[in-house]
């Protein structure tokens, strides 16, 4: 049972588009060209929403370089830096070629903990290998002034080629011990998520230089791939590391129903497609014969119907104290921000749906240095949530 967000109750799911546009446009934010939902809405909800910047295309990943500059990717292969004070967007040069077909393209961007000394920025993207797309992890540096990328290099190119252009993953997370995690989808070939001889349907764990940590679960167990940390995932498009509790969370797309939040653990099998709570797209038939099997992990949360999660963030800021340590996901199909409460022992205890009235496919989420929540939409907009007072 989930709790509906107070903002969505105020706006109402049946409000006409015209009235919603009026609410957005009546009130202006302090920054140039930003748009704010009205003060009455903020009083009801405890927060307000501002449009910070306008990009182009699907804004897939976002990460802060500093308190003012928000680095972001678009799936069609562009990288921009948005000033959160002025809304101005700087587009970077010297970008790599990406396989921007179907669900492929330039995907996540993430700043590692050692950025202040090493200056590397990490990306996931879809690389063209003989006409087929594969998920790859790369890194690059920003020039001074910040107008181009330089020293672009692949950190790791996965063995994930199929004849489809879907289910590439792919989000990035860093732990506190010098490791990078990133996700790969099943690439539209379901059985491959149970095949440890490839990287499909996996969470991968590497050292920051791309080498394999000696304590990865499948090191020395060929033909299993040593880079794999967990497997049996369908299409995980959100991953986040909780340093306080040493937890790695991932959220993934199910089929028709059966989106999952999983606590990702070393060497575990998360079951896809052998177990699932989802149904086939073509009819009311279960994808799998069972929802439980020995040796396969159960999700911590299942969404039925699917919300189509596009990201995952752990909120740890001060601006919204009641939301501290909550998980946030952007919903693509059901068009909202999904907040899930987490207990001290890692139990997922509540759900709240925010901004249903915005009617946007919400893709990426990140917490700003100011403690505000920034999110992107598939229409190329970047917004932020901030307290109403």
Detailed description of the structure:
By secondary structure, the protein is mainly β. The protein has one domain: Neuraminidase (6 Propeller), CATH 2.120.10. A 5-stranded mixed beta sheet has the order 1-24-23-22-21. Strands 4-27-26-25 form a 4-stranded antiparallel beta sheet. A 4-stranded antiparallel beta sheet has the order 5-6-7-8, with no helix packed on it. The longest helix is centred in the N-terminal third of the chain and has 10 residues. It is globular.
Question: Care to give the gist of this entry?
Answer:
The chain is mostly beta strands. It has helices at 6-11, 17-26, 39-45, 115-118; strands at 3-4, 27-28, 35-36, 47-54, 59-64, 69-74, 79-83, 89-91, 106-110, 121-129, 132-142, 149-157, 172-174, 179-184, 202-207, 228-231, 235-242, 247-253, 259-263, 301-303, 313-314, 327-331, 336-342, 348-354, 362-367, 373-377, 381-387.
Q: What's the SSE blueprint?
A:
Layout: E1 3-4, H1 6-11, H2 17-26, E2 27-28, E3 35-36, H3 39-45, E4 47-54, E5 59-64, E6 69-74, E7 79-83, E8 89-91, E9 106-110, H4 115-118, E10 121-129, E11 132-142, E12 149-157, E13 172-174, E14 179-184, E15 202-207, E16 228-231, E17 235-242, E18 247-253, E19 259-263, E20 301-303, E21 313-314, E22 327-331, E23 336-342, E24 348-354, E25 362-367, E26 373-377, E27 381-387
Parallel strand pairs: 1-24
Antiparallel strand pairs: 2-3, 4-27, 5-6, 6-7, 7-8, 9-10, 10-11, 11-12, 13-14, 14-15, 15-16, 17-18, 18-19, 19-20, 21-22, 22-23, 23-24, 25-26, 26-27
């Amino acid at each position: 049972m989930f709790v509906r967000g107070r903002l969505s109750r105020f706006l109402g799911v049946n409000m006409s588009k015209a009235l919603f546009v009026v609410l957005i446009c009546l009130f202006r934010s302090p920054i140039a060209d930003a748009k704010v939902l009205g003060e009455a809405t903020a009083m009801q909800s405890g927060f307000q929403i501002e449009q910070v910047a306008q990009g182009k295309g699907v804004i897939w990943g976002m990460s802060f370089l500093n308190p003012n500059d928000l680095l972001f990717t678009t799936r069609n292969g562009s990288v921009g830096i948005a000033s959160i004070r002025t809304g101005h967007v700087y587009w970077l040069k010297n970008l790599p070629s990406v396989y921007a077909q179907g669900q492929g393209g330039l995907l996540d961007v993430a700043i590692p903990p050692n950025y202040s000394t090493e200056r590397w920025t990490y990306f996931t993207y879809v690389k063209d290998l003989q006409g087929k797309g594969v998920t790859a992890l790369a890194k690059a540096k920003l020039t001074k002034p910040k107008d181009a990328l330089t020293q672009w290099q692949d950190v790791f190119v996965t063995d994930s080629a199929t004849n489809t252009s879907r289910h590439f993953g792919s989000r990035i997370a860093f732990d506190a011990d010098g490791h990078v995690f990133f996700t790969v989808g099943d690439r539209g070939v379901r059985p491959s998520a149970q095949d440890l001889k490839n990287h499909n349907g996996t969470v991968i764990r590497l050292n920051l230089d791309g080498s394999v940590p000696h304590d990865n679960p499948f090191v020395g167990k060929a033909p299993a791939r040593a880079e794999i940390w967990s497997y049996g995932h369908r299409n995980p498009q959100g991953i986040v590391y909780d340093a306080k509790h040493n937890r790695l969370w991932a959220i993934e797309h199910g089929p028709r129903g059966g989106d999952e939040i999983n606590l990702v653990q070393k060497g575990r099998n998360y079951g896809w497609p052998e177990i699932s709570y989802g149904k086939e797209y073509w009819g009311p038939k279960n994808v799998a014969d069972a929802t439980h099997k020995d040796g396969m992990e159960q999700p911590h949360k299942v969404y039925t119907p699917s919300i189509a999660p596009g990201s995952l963030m752990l909120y740890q800021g001060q601006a919204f104290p009641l939301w501290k340590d909550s998980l946030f996901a952007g919903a693509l199909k059901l068009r909202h921000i999904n907040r899930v409460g987490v207990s001290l022992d890692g139990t997922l205890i509540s759900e709240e749906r925010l901004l249903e009235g915005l009617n946007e496919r919400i893709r990426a989420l990140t917490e700003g240095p100011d403690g505000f929540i920034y999110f992107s939409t598939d229409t190329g907009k970047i917004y932020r949530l901030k307290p109403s007072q």
